[in-house]
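In practice, a research group might receive sequence data for several interacting partners and want a quick structural hypothesis before committing to experiments. The following worked case mirrors that situation: the sequences arrive first, and a predicted assembly follows.
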Amino acid sequence: MREPDRHAHFEQVALPYLGAAYRFARWLTRNDHDAEDVVQEAYLRACKAFGRFRGTDVRAWLLTVVRNTCYTWLQKNRGRLPTTSLDEHLGVPGPEAMSPERLFWQKANSELLHEVLQDLPMVYREVIVLRELEGCSYKEIAAIAGVPLGTVMSRLMRARDRLRQALAPRLGEEVRDGM
Amino acid sequence: MECEGIRAVLHSQLDGELPPGDDREVLTHLAACADCAREWDEVHALKKALREALPRTPPPPELRLRVQTALRQEAGKGPSPGPWRWTLALLLLIGPAVGTGAWLLVGPDGYFSKERVMAREVGAMHRQSGAPCHACGQPLDMAARLGSELPFRPVLPDLGTAGFVFLGAHADEIGGRSVAVCTYRGGMDLITLVIRQAEAGAAEEIRVREEQGLQVARWSLGGLEYWAAARLGSTYLQTFAELALTTLRPCCHPGVTPGR
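A structural hypothesis for the assembly, expressed as tokens:
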């Protein structure tokens, strides 16, 4: 394929996923402007690598590039890489630590959810965002995050446990305050 | 399946990732186990809350344009000129035998002529306009604001009614000289307009040339020089330049203050 055709084809197949790329980058960088920089850089990188792309799932491939760009960007600009939490190996307290009242979940407003999700370690945040907001399958998440399927499953479980742990006391407060 | 086993696959079941046989087994267990059913309920509620409460934020409208512009600039990038010392060494080696070639490089319209160097600098400014560090405002306000940062007061054309939207401006420097850098949007394309104090004898008429894959137009008026760069067709950029020049003429723009 000629160079101009390849660029045009890339724009045609990759730009429809700009929203997914932006949201993913936004959750990873936790900053709108940084997310825009990362997305632009990721699209440039993806365009350069497009000639070598042999798969069919452009969205998963693009999100992989966005993720890698985010990690590089964070390392360069904020001097730290997100790491796998020790909890991943040691386990986290079980769901018994949270409030049993299911009613509380209905009180979980978007601001509160947003806040607790922002506070999750990156490896957990990314699986939640990919699964719940972008609707990616386990297989796609495994490809994007570059980990085995089993790790996707365990990270999702731990991520949700952490969210429930973080939400439970605060929802309890809200309910008590509301009384 | 025991409760421990159920907990291990409960998330996969809720995510619709279990094969049908295993799915049935989990549902059968849930029907008989209150603890696991409660766990299922809570994770289900969390998933639902996340999906409902967290917005699928659309990207800002200008991001698409910014990414497209960056991609097209990348696609249109020509080979960059080699370092000066190589050019110089080459000139020394081949010397007078290639006088004609040298003329093409350093002649009045050669590669290293003032005009073309400035055109490339303006082009480079334009390539950075994907991430402008602009202050925003109306052209007149911005002109006043930039006037306090620059050794001259720039006059920024307001071409909104002609379909060229003013996006912002900032003070910068090219080759040690202060410039005002403005960005406009025409349709889906960005136009960078660089304004500096005019050199003696600068021609008023508009001249458009292509430099490294970009169209660059220049003209001067009232002691100021204007350089516009874009990836537009030359006719379109000529239109932008003509409109700008018309708007900037004192008869149309009473606020013109050329230089301090």
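Before designing any experiment, note the following. Chain B has a mean pLDDT of 79. Chain B has nine helices and six strands.
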